[in-house]
């Protein structure tokens, strides 16, 4: 890394840390500041929402980066190739099933998928895991069940749509990028490591543990700064978005579905807690639009978009967002007209 690149990385890191420190300062001293100054309610709300997103997401980011680090140290490229079906389409189903096993929400899934792809997992299989795991995992199943105990169709629709759409979206990405499967952004150090990865291998257990901790720390600070930026933007949207307009649009099936998908994108809620927020909209929005909220948000939201843009090529990110949006919107409308 040259001097210019080092300075750019340092500035980004310092800005991310500075932003977090400013809002932490406001969060813990908000009452004192309100007593001594006239602070706008909107600023207080932005700060509160920002901190709540950070506190909610950081434990899952931490989980994600440790899983990512364990994959880096303990899972070889040969292992991934051994257990993946050779047929590209046949690999989609087991990837969706795998997503139902790991308790990883959308806050933590990006580093895990990124690491798996770096280890040799095909892009389209990683996408299945990316969109499926944040919804299909057992923690989300339980939270959705408790939030919609009086309407179990929401739970079954959420899980069923997520499983089917994960496979479909993965298939679409495969056909779009089968000629150019490498859509990750690689740094010079990563490219060098990619060339010598088969040469340098930790042999002692203590070395593996140390390297796991080093990788986890690097991933945490790398992902953390993008989470902070995404959380800040999401907090601004949540504060200044006119919710009365959203409620006025909630009676129409088409507009309510679109609005709730947009709302899910902007709010950037953790998938393990979003069901309780969705339940609060049940009196204002249709059931199918609530399902759209619960399916679309974990697949792609504002903070995830920023993370994806940081680590994947923009062409892939745009294609991914478009594919997810079109298929979620279309499938929810089909669900409404033919099942619900």
UniProtKB/TrEMBL annotation:
GO cellular component: plasma membrane
Source organism superkingdom: Bacteria
Keywords attached to this entry: Cell membrane, Membrane, Transmembrane, Transmembrane helix
Entry keyword annotation includes Transmembrane: yes
Pfam families linked to this entry: ArsP_1 (PF03773)
The UniProt record lists the keyword Plastid: no
Entry-linked InterPro entries: DUF318, UPF0718
Entry's localization field: Cell membrane
UniProt topology in membrane: Multi-pass membrane protein
Primary location group: membrane
Transmembrane segments: 48-75, 87-113, 125-148, 160-177, 220-241, 253-269, 316-339
Entry similarity comment: Belongs to the UPF0718 family.
Name recorded for this polypeptide: Permease
